[in-house]
Every structure is written in structure tokens, then in C-alpha cells.
Amino acid sequence: MHAIQSPWDGPAGPTPFPAPRPAAESDAGFAVVDVETTGLGRSDRVVSVGVYQLDAQGEVTGHWYTLVNPDRDPGPVWIHGLTSAMLADAPSFPEIAGELAEKLRGRVMVAHNALFDWNMLSREFSRAGLSAPVDQRLCTMVLSRDLGLPLPNGKLSSLVAHFGVQQRQAHNALDDARVLAEAFRPSLQLARQVGLTLPLTTCVAVTDLGEGDPPAPARGSWSASYRPSRKRPACPYPNPGRWADGSPLVQGMRVAITGDTATERELLEDRAVEAGLHIATSVSRLTSLLVTNEPGSWSGKARKARDLGTPVVGEDAFLQLLREVAPHPGVRAADV
Q: What is the 8-class DSSP label of residue 72?
């Protein structure tokens, strides 16, 4: 067994959940997941995994945590706190893959910016010659938006603060999974009270492992958001203004993207352009929306968005919004 006992168990720090109870074999619950990684790129590796298992009603049935030796530099130690020395004796991902698979099997994977966590885990399972046993995922950023929660931004810290959850150690995979599980439970209850369909997304195994890529810049790197720009045709729709949380995107909106994305950047931009959106290379007062997986980063776009109060969403939420982009209210495509 490679699992590490939760540091929040026992007299020193009791879990705020009820005592874990055995899950019935027929339970189809949730696996609330957080991973810490060496970076955001396709070639980056997982360094720790935290899982909280919840039943269909949102009650805890167990939790699990492990360090993972990435067999490379651990990346942003200043974020996740895991040094090479701390990971030297940790198991490799293939060594914990079977145990992790049993924690995920038959459950909806829940994560904050779930596309990122799914892609990282899916790549790790693929490298081990396995498939992650997850059919559906749920992004709590998307669920929060659908519920209309009055959050100032898309950060996990904002979501858990809304529900009065105390975060003890940000960017610790187990504690991030714990606080997300605590925030997900009332979110789940609220969704059921108002009759909201949960925003479940089908999980497709990632086959592009990025093995030929150079290591991606670590989170927080000044150069992490740099991409050479590609000349695109002008958007035929005038800018209708800023995106409002809870509303659809509208053709003509100016969308900026910063930081590494799980979806290939050009593919993400192509999908936005095809939907009638304008891809902006910078953030200004005219920017309708910033897409980033790291809203608290120090990239120029992220800092400008914070200064201007530009709406910010994660990649997973943006992909959900792209499914139903509203037509521009004043211009028909045939008129341009």
C-alpha cells in the first residue's frame, strides 16, 4: 500500500466530515480529486494525488493520498512544497495506478478546473499502459457558474470561502481535495433543490502525451503564457461588451487566453473563432473575458484582468460556454 494517511485525521486535526462509512457496492458516487504537478504542459508529471470519495448523496465514504515520484525535477516547489528529496522515495505513478484506479472506478470525477486534472491523470495512466477508469467528470467552476454563486473569481479559495470552509494548506493535494469536497456537498444539495442538471462531461482518454515536447514552463513562470500569435481574419461582429456570469457568450465578444491549456492553444482559439468570437492578444477595457487555468498568476494578461475587473473563467468552463454561443443581437452573418 502506497497511500499516505491523511494529516487531518486523529486528535491533531479531525476531519469536518462525519466519520467515513463503507460505501455500498451499488453506490454510484463521486471522487473529488486534486493533483499537484511539475507544471501545466503535456509533458509535465503528477507529484501528488488526493482523493475524497463521496456517495451519491455527497457524504464521505473514504479518502486517500499519495506522493508520486515524477522521475524529474518537481517544478514549482514554491507552490506545492514538494522537493526532490521529499519525492525521492515516493512510488512512481505506475506503482500507484492500480490503487488510484480503485478509488476512481465507477464514480464521477469532481475537480476544480476538472479538464486539467483529468488530462494530467489520463496522460499518466496512458504512460503506464492503462486507461483511467473514469467515464464522466464534473468541474466545480462550471457548477458554481450554473448555480449563480456570487463568487469574485474562479479560484478554489473563493468557492470554499463562500461555503465557510477553512483551507489549511493550499496546493496540498489532500487538503485541496478535502475543501473541495466540503464545498461540493452543499453545491450538490443546492443543485438538486433547484432542479439543476449537473454539468457532467464525458471523459475522453488523452493520447497526446507530449513526450517529444520540451518541459513546459512551471506555474508562475513569467514566460508560461508566451505563444507566437497567428494572423486570423477579422471578427465580423462588433464587440457586444463584457461577458456576464450566468449568461452565454455572444458573437463578437473579445476573448483573451493566458497560461498553458490542456487543449492545444490553436485548437482552442480555432473553436472560439468558429463560434464567432474575437481572439484578443492582450487584455484591455474592451476585453469581454479572460480564459486562464491560473487566475492568480502573474502573467501580464492575468494582472491586467484583475486591475480592470475583467471576467475570468477556467478552460473547462470556457469549453462549456463554447457549446452555446448566442448570435449577435444586432448583426446577422449575412449582413457582414
A: S
Pure H helices in the chain: 77-80, 84-87, 93-104, 114-127, 140-147, 156-162, 173-194, 265-274, 300-308, 315-322
d(CA 159, CA 34): 15
Q: Is the pTM of this model over 0.70?
A: no
Q: Which of 50, 52, 66 is nearest to 3 (CA)?
A: 66
The rounded distance, in Å, linking the Cα atoms of 7 and 12 is: 8
As a whole number, mean pLDDT of residues 174-190 equals 96
Give dist(CA 172, CA 193) in Å, integer. 32
- For residues 204 and 192, the model is more confident at 192
Classify residue 75 as left (phi > 0), alpha (psi -120 to 50) or beta.
Answer: left
Query: How far apart (Å, rounded) are the C-alpha atoms in residues 252 and 254?
Result: 6
CB atoms inside a 10 Å sphere around CB 332: 9
**Phi, psi (degrees; rounded to nearest 5) at 100:** -65, -40
243 and 275 Cβ atoms separated by less than 8 Å? no
pLDDT for 229-245, tens place per residue?
A: 456 778 889 999 999 98
Residues in the chain: 336
Q: Do 138 and 109 meet the contact criterion of CB atoms below 8 Å apart?
A: yes
Per the structure block, which three cell numbers stand in for 75? 517544478
Strands (E), the chain: 30-37, 46-54, 60-67, 108-111, 136-139, 200-202, 254-257, 278-280, 289-291, 312-313
Instruction: Give how far Cα 78 sits from Cα of 83, 126, 172, 218, 220, Å.
Output: 9, 28, 12, 10, 9
